[in-house]
Amino acid sequence: MPDKTKINMEDKMIYVGIDVSSKTSDYTIIDQNKKVIRAVKKKNDLEGLKSIDKYLNKFDKNEIKIGLETTGIFWNPIHNFFFKNRYDISLLNAYQTSKFANLIYSKTKTDKLDSYIIAVMMNTDYYKECIVPEDSQANLKELVKSSNKLQVKLYNQKRRISTQIKKVFFEYDSLFKNIFSISSLLILKTYTDFKKIAELKPDELVRLFRGIKGNNLSIEKANVIINTAKESITSEIGLEAASFVLLQDIQLYESLVKLKDKIDEKIDLYMNEYEFTEDKNEEINSLNPINAVLSIPGVGKKTISTLIAFCGDLSNFDNLSKFKGYIGIYPQISQSGTMNYSNAHKKGIPILKKQLYLASISSIRHNMELRQIYLNALSKKKSKAQAIAKVRNKLISIIWHLYNHKITYDASKVMVNQAAWY
User: Fold this and answer.
1) Cα–Cα distance, 88 to 65 (Å, whole number)
2) How many Å apart are CA 391 and CA 375, to the nearest integer?
3) Alpha helices in 17-110 (DSSP H)
4) Global pTM?
């Protein structure tokens, strides 16, 4: 059966929009007059990709522009295929395509329409291309995301263990400053409920810790633990099962800690080997930009590794405003008549925003200058959240300047007015 679609070869430029899902992708091919030449759905496998490649070979590759929306992780192999086959392919942010669709078309959303919208965006140049991360940055990003997920799991697991301990020894948390210390967990793994601890002699408990480095469990402390167990008000109903579950929870917690430590070691390795943009006019012994950022009191390796993972080389940003915009640190302004409303924009990179918030809290504790900015904001009757946001914004500014100038932190430049370089 002959193909009813006629290809007008006089319309030189061809635009391809790809909307990706987990198993299939929608392809819409248009000419420079936005007329659809072909719209088709293909499986996300080699056969499906080759069939699109075969069709596109009817045209000159120099006259083809492909747009691909960054949907989850599904875009990666599609982009890789067309990039390796030397097509001009651009990655588009899903937020951009959504705004463009709402601006030009109705709010109806289908995969077929999405692929057409992407093709039209390529035709009109109404887009800003996303940067495809280098291999080293992609590896670092994967590790940082994994470490962050494990951190959340560890937090939830600690809460679960804390609850479970109450079921086996109600007063136990009052006996230790940190119930997740090596000594505390060893007691719970060896003697899983208050009844077993109550039957012990002080010497038995002390001997348990002799092989632990830094152990400070005295005979007096052992007596306190045993006597508390003897006088415990813990219920014995369901005690056996609760003890068993607690043991499994502790073992899972320890395995998560070991796994996170391994991932964090790998992150440190990638950070040590990370390559930066070189400046030919730069002195040979100039400061490494990572060490420049780490000179800020309150900023640690986790903050800079998260920044590099999600932003890449910070020198790629032309100015501070673009850097802040990429992170998602800018106000969302609403206006109605004489009333103006401003609040923090919810777009951006959640993991990075969270880490910058934690770095801001750390800086308030350990950085005298940033702490003063926080206190000044509170004195002007700003809320704590607004004061922390002010510290965060200043911290981002300092990080960007130190990284790009490759110089150490200078406290004298923090509190001066905005004419200073940070």
Assistant:
1) 5
2) 10
3) 46-56, 75-84, 94-104
4) 0.78
> Could you read off the pLDDT of 339-356 as tens digits, one per residue?
555 555 667 788 999 999
DSSP, collapsed to helix, strand or coil, labels residue 31 as: strand
What's the token pair of residue 44?
């996300």
Q: State yes or no: pLDDT of 281 exceeds 70.
A: no
Contacts of 77 (CB under 8 A, 6+ apart): 44
Task: Please name the amino acid found at residue 367.
Answer: N
DSSP assignments along 68-93, one per residue: EE--TTTHHHHHHHHHHTT-EEEEE-
How long, in residues, is the chain? 422
CB 296 within 8 Å of CB 398? yes
E strand or H helix that includes residue 339: strand 339-344
Nearest CA-CA partner of 58 in 43, 77, 44, 38: 38
d(CA 382, CA 364): 16
Please list, residue by residue across 109-128, b when 16 or more beta carbons sit within 10 angstroms of its beta carbon and e when fewer do.
eeeebbbbbbbbbbbeeebe
Mean of per-residue pLDDT scores for the chain = 85
Long-range Cβ pairs for the range 326-335 (8 Å, 24+): 327/352, 327/353, 327/356, 327/396, 328/353, 329/353, 329/356, 329/392, 329/393, 329/396
Tokens of 388: 């922390």
